[in-house]
Predict the structure.
Amino acid sequence: MSVLPQLVFVGPSVDWWALLPQMILLGAALLILLVSALAPQRTSSGLVTGTTVCSAAAAWIATFGLWSDVRTEGPSASIASALGVDGFSVFFTMLIVIALIATAMLAHSYLDREGIDPPEFHALLLCSAAGAIVMASANDLIVMFLGLEALSIGLYVMIAMHARRPEARESAMKYFVLGAFSSAFLLYGIALTYGSTGSTNLIHVRDYLTAVVFRDQHLLLAAMALLLVGFSFKVAAAPFHFWAPDVYQGAPSPVTGWMASVAKAAGFAALLRVFFVAFATHEADWSPIVAVLAFITLIVGAVMAILQNDVKRMLAFSSISHAGFVLVAVQSASNKGTSAALFYLFTYTFMVLGSFAIVGAMGADGEHPLDRYAGLGRSRPILAMAFTILLFAQAGVPLTSGFVGKFQVIGAAVADRSYLLAAVAMLTAVIGAFMYLRIVMAMYVADREVEGPSPTLHWTVALVLGAVTGFTILIGIVPQFLIEFADDAVPVLIRG
C-alpha cells in the first residue's frame, strides 16, 4: 500500500501589528453597518460620527507606535513583502487618519441637514481611508491597485449619495467612467511591468532593472508611461484633469474636501513609491516627462482658476495647480524633492479641508457664485478671517504653511537646476494669488447682492476650522518639526 506524500501549505507571514491601522478602520466600518442594521430606529448621527472619530484616533495611536518601531528597528514588510512599514507609509497613514477625523466631523452637520443616512456614509468613508493607506503602503503593484479601487469605489458612492441632486449623480457617473479609464491604464502598465521584469513587487523590479541591461526598452518605457497616465488621472494633473472641476462642483462639500486632500495624497504616495523605488534606475527616462506634466498642470490650473466665477470651480482648478507644485518636487528625483512633496501634501491637506469646510457652511451644494460671499467680512467676520488665512496660505503668503511648502518645492527645483520650472512655478503662484484675492475682495469690499442661505457653523465644523487655521499659521511660523518629519520619512523610501 503506497503512502501519498502529505502536502503542507505554508502561507505568507503576516505582521498583524503592521496592519493594525487598516484593521481598526475596517472593523469600525463593519461595526457601524452591523449596529445600523440591528438598531430598531435610525442610528444617531452623533454615535456614528463618534465611532468614526474614535477609530481614526485609535488608528493614529497605532501608527505612532509603528513610527517608533521604524525609527528604532528600521523598515519592515508584511504579507510576502506586499505591504511595507517604513517612514513613508507611516507619514501618509498619519496624514490620512487626521484627514479622516476632520472629514467625519465636517460631514456630521451636513448629513443631518441634507437627510443622508450617516451609517452608510461613514462606513464608506472608513473603507475609503483604509484603501488610501494600502495605496501608500503597498510594495506590490497589484496590492496598490486593490487599495486604489477600495479608495475609488467608496468615493463613487459617496459622491452620488445626495440622490435628490442630479448634479451629484452626474458627478458620480463622470468620476466613475473616467476613473475606470485611469484604472485600465494602470492595469495595462502593471501588465507591461510584469512582462518586462517578471515581477510586480517594487523591490524585485528595482533589483531586476539594476542587474539587467535592456537592448530594447520599449516595453518598459510603455509600462512607465501607462502607469504615469493612470496616476495623473487620480491626482488631476493636466491634461488628465477634465473630470475635476465638474466633479468637485457637483459632489457634496465634505466629499469634495476628501477627494481634494486624501485621494490626491494617496495618488501621489503611490506615484512616488512606484517611480522612486521600482524605476529609480530609469529616472532619466521618466523625470523629463514629469517635468512637462508639471509645467502644463501649473499653467492650466492657475490660468483657468482666474477665469471662474464659481468658488467651488475656483478651488477645483486651484487643486490642479497645487498638483503641479507637487509634480515640480517629484521631477527632481531627489531626497530634497521627495521631502518637499511630502511637506507640501501635508500642509495642503489642512488648507483644502478648511476651505471646503467654509464652502459647505455657506449653504447648499451646487453652484457657489462669488457674489454669495460678498459682505461676509461684515456679517461673519471670524468665518471670513479663517477663509482669508486659508486662501492666503494657498497663495503662498509668508507666515503661512503654504509659503513654506512652495519655498521647499521651488528650492528643490533650483537644487536640481530646473530653473525654468522654478520660474514657471513662481509665476503661476503670482497668477493664482489673483484668484484668491478675488474671493477676499468679495468678502471685505463688495456689498451683498445675491440673497442666499446664511452661513451655518455647527460646532464640529467650527472645531475643525479652528484646528486647520491654527495649524496653517503654526507651520508658517515654526515649520521645522514638520520639515524634519518629512525628511525622516524620505531615506527609508529611497533605499527601499
User: Anything to note?
Assistant: The mean pLDDT is 86. The chain has one domain: 20-490.
